[in-house]
Amino acid sequence: MIVIPDSFLDRMQELHGEQGVAWAGALPELMSDFARRFDFYPEAPYPRLTYNFVLRGKRGDGSPAVFKSSFMKDELSREISVLRAFEGRGAIKVLDADEKCGAVLLEGADPGLPLSTIEDDVFATQIFCQVFRRLHHSTPSNSQYPSMKQHFGAIERYRERFSDVHITGPLPESWVENAEECLAYLIATTKESTLLHGDLHHENILRHGDEQWVVIDPKGLVGDIHFDVIQFLLNYEDRGGDSEQVLRNRMAIIADRLELDPLRIAMWGVARGVLEACWTIEDVGNDWHRGIHMTERFAKLLD
């Protein structure tokens, strides 16, 4: 019998209250049912579980598989839909799913090492470009996924929250205005909407086989293809030099190899940094400066 870690039960209590704890407590029974129905043999949960319960195991033929379940069933259903849309383009395969139960059985990446294990940043960026090109090749958009306007909704909510002239918001006004202007321009000038991964960073790109790489954990968005490089640019930002130079080096490689417009990437970065700051404020956090620092780095690329 699989034991649910106390740390995950505490996390579900923090996020979803008693309903979350009850859901997590029922996971062993759900896994047993899944194992019987889908020829799956559970082994052990992954360490550092946060929002979802993820467990490694094997199928009857010995191939690795991953069981994933989420209290947020709609979000997991969207992930399953995106993975199926990306099938054959370098996404991990969906083996079986029961969306009503909020559970999915995924192909296990072998050896499953993330792109972050490649410490040569130039080489890692080149691999990212290969993954990106394959993933987005002829992938149509679909209106069932959130738009970029919806994804950046926290900026609009920030405006509404601090709309009273007597209440001053914590974020520098000039950066919020810049982000709003960039966002409006980018959305208005997007010529073709594409299905985007939405969270394409080092830890969501895994080695599968000797040279193959696959993506996991898509969020699913529809919009400008340039946006899907942003999360990669934000991770391991000082690997191989200071953060500003690393950003410039990665941008140069990405713009050249993927034939993307570096100015559009930079503008998305400006908006994404302010979005990060707005998310922090919504979560009652204090470190909104981190998001503004993101914005400032990308803004220097617009000069």
**SSE arrangement, N to C:** HHEEEHEEEHHHHEEEEHHHH
Round the Cα radius of gyration to an integer and report it. Answer: 20 Å
Summed up, the domain count is: 2
CATH domain fold name of the largest domain: Aminoglycoside 3'-phosphotransferase, Chain: A, domain 2
Report on this model:
The model has no long low-confidence stretch (mean pLDDT 93). This protein is globular. The termini are far apart. α4 (121-136) packs parallel to α9 (243-258). The chain is built from eleven helices and ten strands. With 303 residues, it is of the alpha+beta class. A five-stranded antiparallel β-sheet has the order 1-2-3-5-4, sandwiched between helices. A three-stranded antiparallel β-sheet has the order 6-8-9, with helices on one face. Strands 7-10 form a two-stranded antiparallel ribbon. Helix content is 47%, strand content 16%. It has two domains: 6-108, Phosphorylase Kinase, domain 1 (2-Layer Sandwich), CATH 3.30.200.20; 113-302, Alpha-Beta Complex (Aminoglycoside 3'-phosphotransferase, Chain: A, domain 2).
